[in-house]
Model the fold of this input.
Amino acid sequence: MIPTATIRKPRGAYAKTAARRREILEAGMDVFATNGFRSGSIREIAEVVGMSQAGLLHHFSNKNELLAGVLELRDDRATEYVDTAGQADIETIRGFVRLIDYNAREKPGLVELHCVLSAEATSPEHPAHDYFVRRYAWVLSFLTEAFEAMQAAGQLAIGIDPTSAARGMIAMSDGLQVQWLLTPDSLDMAQEMRNYLHPLLAVEL
Done:
């Protein structure tokens, strides 16, 4: 950890720019969460923060960078449900399931944004490509650590590979999101994730 004495706070114009960028991302998260990815627009975000569209995009290289920034902010706020600073263990898995439930109930527009942008960003040329590569690598590593800790604690079923369990959980989450977006009333994403995890565990989730 970097000692706090060595950390310098942003000053002057840089601090104002960072604060403005954060304000734009927070407004974007609210707009997309409320109106959905397709209905939400840069114009609406600009109106919320009292800027022109050109002025808003001045803080980002393009619209896709703004969208990826909104998803990064969503990830930051997810720590309310998943403690990413502590030891990964069974509580990490429980937290992810609670987060899936929360996103379905409160943030459907951001679920849509994630699905659309992650699919488009599979192209190496896409502005959000690096963000999603980093994100999936981190999520895989974190979930693998959780399953490894569970295995050491005797909470994982015999023969379950922690990395495969983590990959399966990510794939299940992504697939459920697409199915849920197509037919929202046809499934409970959190419950389906619990059903997937049940045979992998030696304890109740």
